[in-house]
Specification:
This protein is an alpha+beta fold and 292 residues long. The protein contains seven helices and twelve strands.
């Protein structure tokens, strides 16, 4: 494997990689999306000086379809309601769900049960990292250390937050696929897991990888003052009362590009239990292409 590729094996009892065309009730893709894979890796480790590009997703367990019907809340607690509860708890009106309550409704989820994947991703320095002289090997070592120790910023999830994912570091994704296939299957033929299939259009990501490569972070108070003096950072919309004295110049708040969500899709194909996901090898389809 190239030095900047990492592999993480993830598994869980349930998964739901929701199709965006479904409006109310959730219906999962038959396989993890690159967007969900990136979310798992960023839950383990992420810094604005680096970013992930999903290279491939290997399937150890396809999982089986399962239908889950549950009571969900359709109302939200407003800030005013929370303040009322803090001052006068007896006046607080709770949200009720289930049993025919007005604030709840029954919804069905078509999810996957008992899944396992091996995510291979390319780790690269963002433009912020290159400008600050960061060392890519430092981030690669940090990702490996955290994955081996089971550390994460927040618990990774398989599509939706309630379906938690376990994870483990794998130095060789293909060897790990064959090892797990041998452990799970008596015939020891890992190609029989998912030999070849055209999955059609699949959600790739909601944030363009070319924009993510620039990095993004909020500036500290000291950096804001330095930026105002040196005029090195492009000004953005200021908060109330945050303008440079005597001028109409807006106060800079961040460095990098604030990315707007834009759904992108690709034609997903499984070959020998592996889905190729690298943007240089698959065609990304968007409604409004991002300028180069």
């Amino acid at each position: 494997m190239p030095e900047n590729l990492i592999s993480i094996r993830v598994w869980g009892d349930f998964a739901c990689f929701t199709r965006p065309e479904m409006k109310v009730e959730r219906v999962s893709y038959p396989l993890m999306t690159p967007s969900a894979a990136r979310g798992i890796l960023e839950a383990i480790f992420w810094e604005p000086q680096m970013y992930y590009l999903i290279d491939a997703i290997r399937v150890v367990k396809k999982g089986s379809w399962v239908s889950i019907r549950r009571n969900e809340v359709i109302s939200r607690v407003s800030l005013d309601s929370a303040k009322t509860w803090m001052k006068n708890p007896e006046k607080f009106v709770a949200i009720h769900a289930g049993g025919g309550a007005a604030d709840g409704t029954q919804r069905n989820t078509l999810a996957l049960e008992d899944v396992e994947y091996i995510i291979t991703a390319q780790v690269s320095l963002s433009e912020l990292g290159n400008r600050s002289g960061q060392n890519l090997n430092k981030y690669l070592s940090e990702i490996e250390r955290r994955a081996k120790q089971g550390k994460c910023f927040h618990r990774p999830a398989l599509g939706v937050r309630e379906f938690a994912a376990d994870f483990q570091w794998e130095p060789d994704p293909q060897a790990a696929l064959e090892r797990r296939a041998t452990e799970l299957r008596e015939d020891r033929d890992w190609r029989a897991i998912w030999p070849e299939e055209d999955l059609g259009l699949m959600l790739y990501d909601v944030f363009d990888h070319r924009q993510r490569s620039q990095g993004f972070r909020w500036l500290t108070a000291e950096e804001i003052e330095q930026a105002l003096t040196a005029h090195t950072v492009t000004a953005t919309k200021p908060r109330k009362g945050k303008r440079k004295a005597g001028t109409g110049e807006a106060l800079p708040r961040h460095e990098g590009v604030l990315i707007k969500p834009q759904a992108a899709f690709f034609h997903a194909t499984i070959r020998d239990a592996c889905m190729d996901c690298h943007p240089e090898r698959v065609k990304i389809i968007t409604n409004t292409p991002v300028e180069e």
